[in-house]
Amino acid sequence: MEKYHKNVKKVTNFVTYSVLGTPYNAIFVFYIPLHLLFKTISVELLLIEDEPSVISLIERGLKEEGHHISIAMDGYTGLKMAGLNHYDLILLDVMLPGMNGMDVCRNIRMSNNEVPIIILTALNQTEDIVEAFDRDADDYLTKPFRLEELKARINRYNRKSKVIVEQKNILTFDDLQLDRDSKSVQRAGVPIILTATEFRLLEFLMLNRNKVLTRIDILEEVWGMDVDLSTNVVDVYVNYLRKKIDKQFARKLIHTVIGMGYVIRHEN
Known InterPro entries for this protein (predicted)? Predict the structure, then answer.
């Protein structure tokens, strides 16, 4: 029986295989792109961070995954790069020179840029998290974090952006209507202005009408956060929604199920 020797080593973005012991003792070397071997989907990332050690960690780890990373070390430069170039995802520190990350996030959204933004920060109080989502960040990762966790979150957003799912574009419940294309909401014909985070929360509730959603369900789907039972971010945003969706109407649609979670349904 012929014996084969497989030599695997990384050469830029390729893996080389050497096969020995073939007829006539020939040696064949062929190359397989890493993205075919490991099915890695490359992502164009913008990292806005001023700490060299954090930059080095993220840059080294994500380049090994085949991702492309651009770096800005202050808020103004990051905002400019976000406006001039296309990125699949932005990693954004909060404590930045020039312009802080919260203001960078707000200005990116004001330019109608819907690129996913993950906040990276040592700030972990509820008010800090709420402020980040008020600025329409998509996710929030507290420092110090494990690189594997960051990779998992990046992959999560990448899958969401790559997979095309045919779904109804207009969701309706009672007199409440949500248009997923125009990102608009109205109730009884009255337009309701929502932030991006409020919109995602309402969309999730409407997609699961009459089903009680736990706070953990909502955290994972709307924010993509690891479960932190001490945070009340979900309660804060449900309260925001109630003020806009239910307050001026006699019929209430958003309900609390004590000890369980929240649901959109008709009153019992």
Answer: CheY-like_superfamily, OmpR/PhoB-type_DNA-bd, Sig_transdc_resp-reg_receiver, WalR-like, WH-like_DNA-bd_sf
